[in-house]
Amino acid sequence: MEHTYAVIMAGGGGTRLWPLSRQDKPKQLLPLIGQETLFQSTVQRLENLFSPERILVVTMEEQAREMHQQVPSLPEENYIIEPAPRGTASVAGLAATILRKRDPNAVMAVLPSDHFIRNRDLFHYLLRAAFEVAENGYLVTLGITPTHPSTAYGYIQQGDPLSGGYNYPAYAVKSFKEKPNDKTAQKLLRSVDHSWNSGMFIWRADVILEEIKRQIPVLSAALADIEAAWDTAKQAQVLKDRWYDLKVETIDYAIMEKAKHAAVLPAGGLGWSDVGSWESLFEVLLPDMNGNIATNNKSHLGHETNNTLVYGSISDRLIVTIGVDDMIIVDTDDILLVCKSDQSQSVRDIVEHLKKHRQEKYL
Amino acid sequence: MEHTYAVIMAGGGGTRLWPLSRQDKPKQLLPLIGQETLFQSTVQRLENLFSPERILVVTMEEQAREMHQQVPSLPEENYIIEPAPRGTASVAGLAATILRKRDPNAVMAVLPSDHFIRNRDLFHYLLRAAFEVAENGYLVTLGITPTHPSTAYGYIQQGDPLSGGYNYPAYAVKSFKEKPNDKTAQKLLRSVDHSWNSGMFIWRADVILEEIKRQIPVLSAALADIEAAWDTAKQAQVLKDRWYDLKVETIDYAIMEKAKHAAVLPAGGLGWSDVGSWESLFEVLLPDMNGNIATNNKSHLGHETNNTLVYGSISDRLIVTIGVDDMIIVDTDDILLVCKSDQSQSVRDIVEHLKKHRQEKYL
Q1: Among all residues of chain A, which has the CA nearest to that of B349?
Q2: What is the pTM of this model?
Q3: Most buried among A279, A359, B128, B193, using CB within 10 Å?
Q4: A321 → chain B, closest CA residue
Q5: Using the beta-carbon criterion (under 8 Å), do A343 and B323 form an inter-chain contact?
């Protein structure tokens, strides 16, 4: 594990957890599960595996300061500022460029900052196994064994097992599949060769840069200029100049789908969630005997209330529910959301409506 | 109408509209319907019929100041402070004592401060008719023609029509009935001789004081002492001393049930409600096309939301509902209530729970 690094992608916005997640307060900076923010949990999850100097965070200018406050243990120079959002492939390429310059033998795990993983020991074990496969030149991704017919995740179909005598079963990637409809999701759940696409990737820096050169030459050329200017006085200017010209490219579509040596390690029992909707919190938080979850709030009084999530973010506020079933209640300083659990995806429609009517203060 | 007066009973507390109504902010002081508080509406409803000097308010020390701020048009000396709550019969007796001293021929309407009446013209017409009957020595009450089988109201059964050639039909009271169960309420609705007990009474001051002397001699004796001390230096002290010794007595049970000459004027079409529960607001407020009522709040965004009442009392706060049916949502500074409409009576259980656990700040 001598040349291993972790890269946390923390630039995202996202409105699916609105009204808690906002333009100036994205999901990863919020204490959605327990006392820590998702970003803090993500770093803590890595701390036994990587010393702080080996953890890189790629984020936006607006968020870097708060991230550093939340996690003062990471060196300030390990926060890489992305001048503008250009997709996960661009972020991965930038991080690989920087790491290869530091360490030509760097092997890196590229990880989202805003996911939840309950089983840390298993996660560590899997990362070690993935590094082992990656060192042999594979672009590795962790697949999550489906636990229900989710239409919220993309799927990865595995092909033949890799030869090489790995400790953990690894497979060639046969195909990536977009979010399915209900019927297809049922089918994929019953199949044994599909996992959820977790967005976690493990590879050698030189291998991913080679793959970018082959598949996204424009990005590769920009990265070459950035590499040349890195650690010089021109670093910031060149990064900015070249970054703005890039197109948005994602790892899944621009790299993995046509990669030469893509591999997947399917993992069950991680207790993983992308925390992509309010409803997903029911999967990762432990409900009381009535199925209720009162998170971030000690003052919920439920009377004949079942399967209801109450997220309160105002201190000293009492939330009372009477005769409420299958609801999500999110109580923030300036917005109250009361939403039927199975309609939590409509939160996006509300956000769109507010954008259209220029209600900036609620976005 | 030369000797007519109005007495507004405004001492009540009540927790049925919790968390909006609170110990220090009773229902009558709240803007439940429209911009005005129920107390303001009650006074405005009387202004065409009574000059301000002829409107008396009986209330508690704690509320008098805010009432005077809400309705500066009433003379300060017309606010009578009840030293402690001793029931509507005691209040009516005190008001009658004061009015008879001012005007031996006083005829008075005793009215709750926290009810709603949509049709003011009809109300004026009915009050005039009731005064006409009262001048002949009757204890008159307004009965409300039931519009649904309510179990929330007491009922009055009417007997024979009064002779006397009144402009409006008046009947002897046959009996008072307590709040019925569902089955009885259905039966009472179908009968033609039962009305809801509105708690509005009209009578001559001398007649009610005579009736109190006959039925509640202890109160009568206290009132005699208070009358003797009234408008002297000892007024406040005597009122206090005698008041604390009284028992709680209500007009319905201690006076009307066994009164010699009780009469009822049944009234339909008043658009009356005692605003006694959150659910009752559905009867008096006009819903939008989806059956929703957003009162006191311009910022409700409902998506697939039906028959839901949203009462917001925090300015600039956005309330979003998605997939919500038949709910009552009350959003106050320190408490949020989300309650199924037909369970709004359980609000009392919550209040009891908070009392038991000494959560004073939420009461």
Answers
A1: A303
A2: 0.84
A3: A279
A4: B338
A5: yes
